[in-house]
Design a protein that fits this description.
Length: about 300
């Protein structure tokens, strides 16, 4: 009986480690040493180039980390089950330890600077990978930008709003995202989504999200007289822009859902990656809305 138990434990351990992980420093900014965890499928041919999921964790720009269990589980899944390079990144948590946090007491200018620097950190991580594409065996034409909550805001602004936030765009000319995976994210202004930067996108959002608006509304629903009043465009507006450009999307709406919809939808990951396989790899155009009702 003990032998059987030992064998089972070894099999389980092998199954969970069927990918390789390495950690790299992609930038040092002030007191922040920013690292990435890179998960690679266990058996990759020498001449093989794989698609990438480049993931940015949530946490209100003040907490969490690249190896948080759910974020770690996602990038491991991408490598083990989908034959992707799965990458989870650090970024500067500019609201950590501040008295105003990231709510209605945080000024508009501070929020804009936080969004800007998060987008820059994300683009710097992407550039680090692209510049070492041969070493990582990356297909640079198939990079999916992904994130949840604050991470989704950082990613969406990096993908769609470089013209607004980035002064020296030529530094990132080698980066072109092929897909986007956002869990409860929003952009500063959806008018910056164009035919040139629109990419196949997976969007998850609750209609009653109290922090990141589902449609066009103030961040954290701050009153106009509050310092933190700033309008954002959420997933509903983003999906409309993608539809306008006949760009693929897979829009998951949870009626009555609040910010808990920012969680990574592990139960749907096979559908998410199938969508990217069809649109990013096979160039199909698919526009799907899934409407669910929040369970009591």
């Amino acid at each position: 009986m003990k032998k059987v138990t030992i064998i089972l434990v070894l099999l389980i351990a092998y199954g969970l480690s069927a990918q390789n992980m390495e950690t790299f420093t992609y930038a040092i900014k002030g007191n922040d040493t920013l690292k990435i965890d890179v998960f690679t499928p266990e058996k990759v041919k020498k001449d093989e180039r794989l698609p990438v999921l480049l993931w940015m964790h949530g946490g209100g720009f003040s907490g969490s980390h690249r190896a948080f269990p759910d974020d770690n589980k996602l990038v491991k899944y991408a490598a083990k089950e989908q034959n992707y390079i799965g990458v989870s990144i650090d970024y500067r948590l500019l609201r950590k330890g501040t008295t105003t946090g990231f709510g209605c007491d945080c000024t508009k200018d501070e929020k804009l600077e936080t969004f800007k620097q998060a987008a820059i950190d994300y683009l710097d991580a992407a550039r680090y990978l692209v510049e070492r594409a041969d070493m990582f065996q990356i297909d640079t034409t198939k990079i999916i930008a992904g994130g949840s909550s604050a991470g989704a805001e950082g990613v969406l602004n990096a993908v769609f709003m470089k013209d607004y936030f980035i002064e020296h765009k030529e530094e990132y000319k080698s980066i072109k995202f092929a897909g986007l995976f956002s869990c409860a994210g929003a952009v500063m202004d959806a008018r910056y989504i164009t035919e040139d930067n629109a990419v196949p996108s997976v969007l998850y959002h609750g209609t009653e999200d109290q922090l990141v608006p589902f449609g066009n509304a103030p961040h954290h629903y701050c009153d106009p007289e509050r310092d933190g009043y700033i309008m954002l465009d959420g997933s509903e507006i983003i999906a409309k822009k993608l539809e306008e450009f006949n760009t693929s999307y897979y829009f998951n709406i949870v009626n009555g859902g609040r910010h808990e919809v920012s969680r990574i939808p592990f139960e749907d990951l096979d559908k998410v990656f199938n969508f990217f396989n069809q649109t990013m790899i096979n160039d199909e155009v698919i526009q799907t809305k899934i409407i669910k009702t929040k369970q009591p």
